[in-house]
Structure formats: C-alpha cells, structure tokens
C-alpha cells in the first residue's frame, strides 16, 4: 500500500496509512552523525550538525576533511551565528509578550491599591484582614505574578540575561515594582497567622532576596539625596523597602513585650523599638515610604498609637516631631 501511494502520488494520510517521512529523516540524521563519529570525529553540536545536514540536502558535499577548510568552516560558522541571533530575537520577543501580560496583572493590583486608599485603609492592611471581596480576588493575581517572577529569577540565576548582569534593565525595573507591590501581600499572609515571627528568616522567598540584591547592585552608583521628581511623585509611589511591613509587625510585637514582658524582654524590646524609630525616619527622609502608611487604620499608625501610650512623655525623637508637625506635608513632597 505504501508503494502504491507513492506511484499514484496520493498522500499517505489519504490512504489511511502512517506517514514515515519524519522517521526516515531522523534515521538519516542519526546515520550521518554516526558516520562522522565512527570516522574519529567529535560529535558536533546539534545546531552545527543541522546546518551541515541542510547544506548537504541542497547538494553541497561536505566531508570531514572539508570541514577543516577555512572557507567552508567560515560559512558554517556564519550560518550558525545567524541562527543563534534569530533564536535570541525570537526569545526576546516572546519574553516581552509574556512580560506585557504580567504587567496587566500588576495594573490590577495598582487599581486595588488605589481603591483601598479611597476606602481609608492601605492595601496591606486590607489584604491582611480581608475586609472586602476584592481582597480575595487579589490572591489570583498574586499567584500568577509570583509564578512568573519565581521562574524568571531561577532562569536568570542559572543563565544571566546579559553579560555583567543577571537581568536586563527592562526586567529588573519590572521585577522591582513587582517585589515592592507583591511582597507586602506575602508578609500580610504570614502575619495573618497567629504567633508568626521573623518573616525575613522564616518566610521570605529566595526570588525576593535575589531581585532586591540585583536591584541594589544596579542602582548603587545612583544613590543620593531624593530629587524633586521623587518628592513630587511620592503620593503615588510604592514603599521601596518591600520588607517595611515586616518591620512594622515586629515593632507591634515589641510593643507588647515592652508592656507585658519580663525585664530582659522589655530591655530587648526597647532597643529594637529605638532602632525601628530610626529606620522609619531614614525612610521618610529619603521619601522611600508610601504616604499610605499614615492612613489612620494602618498597622503603622496602630504601632505609633501603642508606642505613644507606652513611652514616657519626656521621650523625644525626630520621628515624634515629624508625626506631630510634618506628617501631612509629606504626601505633598514638602517635608
């Protein structure tokens, strides 16, 4: 039947039989590869072997000896380089398309952040306490985003996207925005569980650590005082330290220890709270925190109220002065 289909020029599919042409081609490739290796030649990379097979298919005779010829070798190398460039371009186009789809999910979270602020509560606290139906919807977006960036970071760690850096600037910028937007949601989930402590050691994903490390390496040379543009845009900005809310949660725990703990616990808690005060003031001076932290129902404001009730009235600090006199100017970029 196979011979009859060939004579009548009818396709194998139409005759109801299997098409063996693909199998024959693969066997032919293996045969040529085996012949090369049996001649004592090293097994060639698959791309280079494929180019040689294509040249042979169009009638160019290439023996093992001819492969040492400079002109033939240069031709094969040039075709190999062209194929590699084309593959990289296609990979780049595919990567951009995937990144653009991911940015749509980020836009959904941006909308969620603005909607929460309009309701008088930051998106961190809304998600932690699950106040609204939209809080549950966010989990779906977060899952898609986290899967994408976790896989991308793992790939970049194994095979950096460009020489001298793990990620190209486009992906690093998008990854930084993702980390600053989504990691607070992971922190909210972590501290939503009763008795949880020390997210940075016990709960933080490696891909956040690497994204933060790569971003710091990239921007280290640009470090400096906040410029006017940063001050003007602070109202819509994300908090730069994606672990800010972890520090707030730990400060709330320290307040409880300062109030009810043993003498040793109180001493340790007071030291941590002093450090936290300085940390927050540093973030404010650099316009590195979103004004959302000052919303009345936020965990940060809950900490501040607790802290004010515990510390002595004589306690004075730059943060206390800021909270009393300058807080409302911060969102306007006029602090």
From TrEMBL:
Keyword Coiled coil (UniProt)? yes
Chain ranges of the EDS1 EP domain: 108-320
The record's Pfam families line, in alphabetical order, gives: EDS1_EP
Question: Organism's domain of life?
Answer: Eukaryota
Q: Which residues form a coiled coil?
A: 65-92
Q: Name one GO molecular function term.
A: carboxylic ester hydrolase activity
The entry's keywords: Coiled coil
Q: What GO biological process term is on the record, naming one?
A: defense response
Q: Does the keyword Coiled coil apply?
A: yes
Name of the molecule in the record: EDS1 EP domain-containing protein
């Amino acid at each position: 039947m196979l011979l009859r289909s060939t004579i009548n020029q009818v396709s194998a599919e139409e005759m109801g039989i299997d098409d063996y042409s693909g199998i024959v081609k693969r066997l032919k490739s293996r045969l040529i590869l085996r012949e090369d290796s049996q001649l004592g030649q090293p097994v060639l990379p698959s791309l280079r072997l494929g180019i040689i097979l294509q040249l042979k298919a169009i009638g160019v005779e290439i023996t093992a000896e001819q492969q040492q010829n400079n002109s033939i070798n240069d031709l094969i190398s040039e075709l190999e380089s062209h194929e590699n460039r084309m593959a990289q371009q296609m990979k780049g186009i595919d990567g951009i398309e995937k990144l653009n789809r991911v940015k749509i999910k980020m836009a959904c979270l941006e909308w969620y952040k603005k909607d929460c602020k309009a309701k008088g509560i930051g998106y961190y606290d809304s998600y932690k306490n699950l106040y609204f139906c939209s809080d549950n919807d966010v989990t779906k977006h977060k899952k898609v985003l986290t899967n994408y960036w976790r896989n991308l970071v793992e790939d970049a760690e194994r095979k950096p996207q460009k020489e001298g850096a793990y990620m190209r600037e486009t992906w690093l910028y998008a990854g930084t925005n993702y980390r600053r937007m989504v990691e607070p949601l992971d922190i909210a989930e972590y501290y939503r569980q009763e008795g949880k402590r020390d997210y940075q050691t016990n709960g933080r994903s490696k891909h956040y650590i690497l994204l933060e490390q790569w971003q710091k390496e990239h921007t280290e040379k640009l470090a400096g005082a906040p410029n006017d543009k940063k001050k003007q845009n602070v109202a819509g900005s994300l908090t730069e330290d994606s672990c800010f809310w972890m520090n707030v949660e730990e400060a709330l725990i320290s307040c409880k220890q300062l109030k009810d703990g043993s003498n040793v616990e109180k001493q340790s808690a007071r030291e941590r709270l002093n450090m936290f005060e300085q940390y927050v003031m540093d973030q404010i001076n650099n316009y590195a925190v979103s004004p959302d932290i000052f919303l009345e129902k936020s965990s940060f404001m809950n900490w501040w109220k607790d802290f004010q009730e515990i510390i002595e009235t004589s306690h004075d600090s730059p943060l206390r002065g800021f909270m009393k006199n300058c807080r409302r100017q911060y969102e306007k970029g006029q602090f």
